[in-house]
């Protein structure tokens, strides 16, 4: 597995662990909030330990239901634990209401219950399920407050804690699900791109060589049949087969040569796709200038080498490709962050420096902290000098000049 594949997989694994601990940790957090409010409640005798036990059981049961959801367990098991959690919450609120009014200690466990109930719905309907659960919790709090069984502070905390806890849990799970689907889609897109390129090359090779191979097969059959009847004609057919084989070899080389052709615009597009698939924010020019074949090939090799190096040897988060045309020269610059400490020029950079030098250009590279800059400059080929108009005028007959 390459570095390009390892980094997204590692990040997704970290997100998975973070999501799991956030999901499981929501239970103890809700229990801690309930304990703080129960500590200030006016409960005497056995009422306080009973209420505390009910809050603990409610948080534990609902956290278990959330853990079962994380591991893909069926709904019936989760609903059993959810029902037990709801029963413990109601029992604890009743214990508190017998000595005083219901306080805000039950708002956080209620948020866990709303989150688990919202996860029963389909992914596209969970937002509405959250709103429905929040509305049910507020309606229950309003009824109890109207009957004088709930403090105003408890109603206010229900307005805050229930949507905060329930929405946080559901949104965190949704965020992880989206990240996992994006990673899967990225892998599928890469596989499809490779398959598409293979099909394109195979189709082009079939179109070019299909006719040649069919002709060779037919000529060979004719020569085999004429071998015992007319040796001269059989030899002529074999010479034709030889010529067809040479043409087929020439066409194959032409196809492979075109397949390996390096164009600056294509290399920039390829670099953008590779960097995006590696999770690197890439900035590339909208269009590349039209240059001669040799210049485009060298500048395309520069972009390819820079992209390969930063994916293999660096851990970038951003990269930039720019093209500057000044006077009679063209400069392509590739910049990225996350570069390691320099350890000397590699074979790729040495090759580029040599080839650019042979073409009258230059290659420069520099480190600035974790920032690496690779710049290649080539002269633009000068257009051929056109003949002067007065020399053309001499070729015009005198009678046409008047």
TrEMBL record:
Q: Which InterPro entries did the record assign?
A: HATPase_C_sf (IPR036890), Sensor_HK_TwoCompSys (IPR050482), Sig_transdc_His_kin_sub3_dim/P (IPR011712)
- Membrane-spanning ranges: 20-41, 47-68, 80-97, 103-122, 129-149, 155-176
Q: List each copy of the Signal transduction histidine kinase subgroup 3 dimerisation and phosphoacceptor domain by range.
A: 197-263
Write the record's keywords in alphabetical order, separated by commas: Kinase, Membrane, Transferase, Transmembrane, Transmembrane helix, Two-component regulatory system
State whether keyword Phosphoprotein applies: no
Question: Pfam families under this entry?
Answer: HisKA_3
Q: What does the record give under GO molecular function?
A: phosphorelay sensor kinase activity; protein dimerization activity
Look up the record and report any one GO term of the cellular component aspect.
Answer: membrane
| Protein name (Swiss-Prot/TrEMBL) | Histidine kinase
